[in-house]
Fold this protein.
Amino acid sequence: MTGYERFQAAGFNNVVNIEGGTLACVEAGLSVVRGKKSISLERQVRIAAGLLVLSGAVLGWLVHPAFIGLSAFVGAGLVFAGVTDTCGMGLMLARMPWNRVKETEGSCCATKEV
């Protein structure tokens, strides 16, 4: 069963299968609406975790040793995420406004006579 047939079997009748994909549309001169480029969620988690660990270490060194607990907390969270395959920071970052997908009318299909 092809992907097209699977969509139809699932009840989606307005399905267009473009042979060659998006690149074929571009080569044919059709307008293609692309989403904005963003940093992947996994990279965002690594950036946030790294900044928190670095901040905890620097604050623990310069301000008060208790700030090292911040680094320990993030380290424990990373271990928990690795063992359980559940990342609390990833779940929180996914809800941030810059990670929300805005639906635009007509963004899935473009029609033009060739």
